[in-house]
Write a structure and sequence with these properties.
The chain is mainly beta. It has 1 helix and 24 strands. The chain folds into 2 domains: 181 residues, Lipocalin (Beta Barrel), CATH 2.40.128; 82 residues, no CATH class.
Length: 302
């Protein structure tokens, strides 16, 4: 499928990080992306926030550099990008709490245990605080539960998530769950399916729109009210070591009519089945095209 771009470069967006409003060449596509964002590296992870922002972690594998960006989820507007926070590679997203991003480091490159916390303001990309001597445990409504990494017996603390100051020290601190849901966005994630042979609606619809002889399992599916969203890997060739090369395609199907609303090849050459290739936040489908182009589409579009 060919993509016919109508590119629009918005103010504040650099030339190599452009937003594209796209129209697809296939007449079968009834939905079109609302925006696209091309990252400077491989999109490693994305996390929505309750205020409608999208935090992204990218990796420049060749130069061993990790960086972070933040977009307006509805419009694709870039709030900040290419941000680094001291550690060039051994760093990643730990959690997002309201509009505070928490990053972690690693104990050692050989040991993937998380250590340290760096708090970033989501709206500005500026560092709020860091603590090298703790390990993240969990989020609570107004605090972060952590454990001192150098304390005998694993001393537990609660830190204010905006300031990093200690608000409570307790070996047996109870979890405050009453308002935690308010700090976390509601995200719909796909579930894996390991066969499409049954007679249920999902399997029937998918058999109409994919080549069953080429499907590699599992197939990621998200069953919404009126739509079915799926990420499908299909074998296109086998290499000399018999490892299959696959094509990863994203499908959006109307459950009522069985019509294909949207189809796009999101990875032309995949060597492994990639789980969780998309998510849905408040009706916005978020996925990555060819590993570096983040894409959003309003599923309510008619």
């Amino acid at each position: 499928m060919k993509f016919l771009p109508l590119s629009v470069i918005l103010g504040g967006v650099s030339s190599h990080h452009q937003q594209e409003i796209g129209v697809f060449g296939s007449a079968r596509n009834k939905l079109t992306p609302a925006w696209r964002y091309r990252s400077s590296g491989v999109v490693w992870r994305v996390v929505p926030t309750v205020s409608g922002k999208l935090i992204g972690e990218t990796r420049d594998v060749h130069n061993k550099l990790a960086s972070f960006f933040c977009l307006n989820l509805r419009t694709g507007e870039v709030l900040w990008e290419d941000a680094r926070f001291g550690e060039p590679w051994w760093i990643g997203i730990e959690a997002v709490h309201n509009d505070t991003l928490l990053l972690h480091k690693f104990a050692t490159p050989e040991l993937p245990e998380h250590r340290a916390l760096i708090a970033i303001d989501v709206l500005t990309g500026s560092e709020l605080w860091r603590n090298e001597g703790v390990r993240f445990d969990r989020l609570e409504s107004e605090a972060i539960a952590v454990t001192r990494t150098q304390a005998f017996g694993g001393e537990q603390l609660r830190l204010d998530y905006r300031t990093g100051e200690v608000v409570d020290e307790s070996q047996t601190a109870e979890v405050d769950r009453d308002t935690l849901v308010d700090a976390q966005p509601e995200i719909d994630l796909p579930s894996p399916r390991y066969e499409l042979e049954g007679d249920n609606l999902t399997n029937t619809l998918l058999r109409q729109h994919c080549d069953m002889a080429k499907v590699v399992y599992p197939v990621d599916c998200l069953d919404l009210d009126t739509l079915l969203v799926c990420s499908i890997h299909e074998t296109i060739s086998a290499s000399s070591d018999e490892r299959p090369c696959m094509m990863n395609t994203l499908l959006v199907v109307d459950k009522g009519t069985g019509d294909l609303r949207f189809r796009e090849v999101i990875n032309k050459q995949a060597w492994a089945v990639v789980p969780d290739a998309f998510l849905v936040w408040e009706g916005m489908l978020i996925y990555v095209h060819e590993r570096a182009k983040l894409t959003a589409m309003d599923l309510h579009e008619q």
